[in-house]
Structure formats: structure tokens, C-alpha cells
Amino acid sequence: MTPFQSVAVIGAGAWGTALATVAARAGRNVTLWARNAEHAARIAATRDNPRLPRVPIAPEIVVTSDLALAARADMLLIATPAQHLRGAVNLLASHMAKPVPVVACAKGIEHGTHKFMTDVIAEAAPHALPAILSGPSFADDVARGLPTAVTLAAKDEALASNLVQSLGSATFRPYHTTDIRGVEIGGAAKNVLAIAVGIAVGRKLGASAQAALTTRGFAELTRLGRALGARGETLTGLSGLGDLILTCSSPQSRNFALGLALGRGEQPPAGKLAEGESTAPVLIELAASQNIEMPVSNAVASILSGRSTIDTAISALMTRPFKAEE
Ligand SMILES: NC(=O)C1=CN([C@@H]2O[C@H](COP(=O)(O)OP(=O)(O)OC[C@H]3O[C@@H](n4cnc5c(N)ncnc54)[C@H](OP(=O)(O)O)[C@@H]3O)[C@@H](O)[C@H]2O)C=CC1
Ligand SMILES: O=C(CO)COP(=O)(O)O
Questions:
Q1: Most exposed residue of 25, 32, 149, 256, measured as fewest CB within 10 angstroms of its CB?
Q2: Does the pLDDT of residue 1 top 80, yes or no?
Q3: Of residues 98, 190, 204, 323, which has the active-site annotation?
Q4: ipTM beyond cut 0.95
Q5: What is the 212 CA–ligand 1 centroid distance (Å)?
């Protein structure tokens, strides 16, 4: 029997709902927590979440807005947006009676502190056992049971492996690692880079430009990862290169779709969370503090803040001094 029989998912958005479905398929007793009591009641009654429409929510998943109930689970998955993760874990911490694994499922870096998600968990809930789950996985694909593989990292290898045993199934295949930082960097940076590639595609710059930007984006993600102690195999693995490839190649990605709209000169899709928008300014601050060059991410941050037009940013990227490829 798995050491973690019950799972609570905190945050009933698209990803939280998909993860609740994953845990139920793996045979766990699942609670899905929504912060809004009315939303929780509606999802519980209709077994449908407007944030992930047309994906039936299994009857055995308990949907609630009672945080004390959710906090009783053997493991907790936090699926809020990255900038709300601290607030959610702060609330949870007062209900956590014993040290339980708290798995960050958000992709980003906290504004102001430059902290990655597991560091935020460790600060907000000192008794938690922080972990992170990330990789190429669209909520809709995952919830529909399409084959998906991700990375799950915790400091302790046995814990990471037990978490994998608790969530894995024939359609959802997590790989474990102890390289928490590597997993966090890949998930945060790929969203910013996907906006860049979306812009290029929206501007009709061609398939060659799409491949070049994705590859040079990966080079800067790797540079930052190495500087922060990430392992090469994590950066080239599912949560790094894997998620970058997915997000930089599909309009199903909200980050890519945001870039696409910007590149076409259209209004970005309304009400869609694109984490890269929040991550871009903090990512380039973090890179600058480490003396790491991230020209593609810088271009995205400049465009989003209005400091640069798209055409100026593209021209600046293409006229940088020639250099050796690394
Ligand atoms: N969607 C996807 O395919 C994937 C998403 N992710 C990551 O998961 C994270 C969440 O994304 P996603 O679920 O798609 O986003 P959504 O916009 O679909 O949902 C976000 C959810 O978070 C809830 N929320 C916001 N603030 C808080 C808070 N303070 N406490 C509790 N809940 C809160 C919202 O509640 P309310 O409804 O009340 O506003 C909403 O239900 C992001 O970091 C994203 O990068 C990772 C992999 C795949
Ligand atoms: O993280 C994701 C896929 O791995 C989801 O990507 P978007 O947030 O860009 O939709």
C-alpha cells in the first residue's frame, strides 16, 4: 500500500482539477479544495469545472471549500498560480498537524523575494516536506487520460519515489529526482520563452525562426540553471527541454497563445492565466543578479512592459555581436 493514501489538491483551477483526476485514477482518496464556497458547491453538484470544461469530475472526488478538511490528507498538491502559492500555504500551515509532503504544482518565481516555489513552501509551512511536480502536461490532456510524463522532485529520494508511487498510473508517468532547483527553473523559464516563440509565430517569422528562438531560449535556460546548481539531465529532461518543446510549439499553451496574439497585434485572450507574464520581470532580475545573459527573456520582459516594440526587440536580438555557440 502507498504511504500516501489520501491526497488534497489546493486550488480548483484547470491544473488542480486535472491533478485531482490523476490522483483518483492512481487509487487515492482525493479532496479538491476551492477557495470560493459557491464555486466548490457548484463543482460538487455539476461534476464540471468551468476552468476545465467538458472533463467529468469523478463522483468519488470530494470537492470542498473547507481547508481544515483538505489539510487532513497524507499529501497536499498546491495548484494555485505561482504568485498566490505563499498565501495558500500560509492558510494551510495553521491546519497542518503533522509534517506532510506539500508538492508545488505552480510554475514561476515569487515577485519581490526571487524565491522558487519549494522555498516559499518551506518558509510558509516550516513543518512541510516540500516537493515540486513539473513537466510537459496540458491540464486538458492529463484530465482526459492522454499519456503524460512529468518530473517530481524532493530533497529526499525516498520521499520523491513514494510521491511518484502515489500519483503514477498507466496514463500519468512521473519520474523522480532530487534536483528540485533544476525542475523549478525549467518550469518557470519555459513560460517566458514560450511567449517569445508565440510572438515570432504571430509575426509570421517562419519555422526557422521558431526553431532558433526555442533553441537559443533553451541555451539561456541552461545557463541560468547551471549557475543556480541545476543538473544537466534535469535541464534536458521532461521539466526542462520537454516542457519547453511543448509550450513553444502549441497554441494550446496559454503562454504561447499570449505571444501569438501580441505578434499578430491582437488583444491577448481574456481571463487566461499566462504565468510567463508574471515570471518575465522576476526571471530577468534573478538572471542579472547572477550575471547571466538571458537576451530572449529580456526581450519578452521589454515587450510586455512596453519598453520595447516587437520589431525593435527582434532586431536587437538579431544584431547582437556574433559569438561562439555554447
Ligand atoms: N493548466 C495547465 O495546463 C497547467 C498549469 N500549470 C500551472 O498550475 C498553476 C495554476 O494554473 P491553472 O490551474 O491552469 O490556472 P487557472 O487559472 O485555471 O486556475 C487558477 C486557480 O487558482 C485559484 N486561486 C487563485 N488564487 C488562489 C489562492 N490564493 N488560494 C487558492 N486558490 C487560488 C483560482 O481560484 P478562483 O477560481 O477562485 O479564482 C483558480 O481556481 C500555474 O502556475 C500554471 O503554470 C502547470 C501545468 C499545467
Ligand atoms: O505548463 C503547461 C504545460 O506543461 C501549461 O502551459 P500554459 O500555462 O502555457 O498553458
A1: 149
A2: no
A3: 190
A4: yes
A5: 31
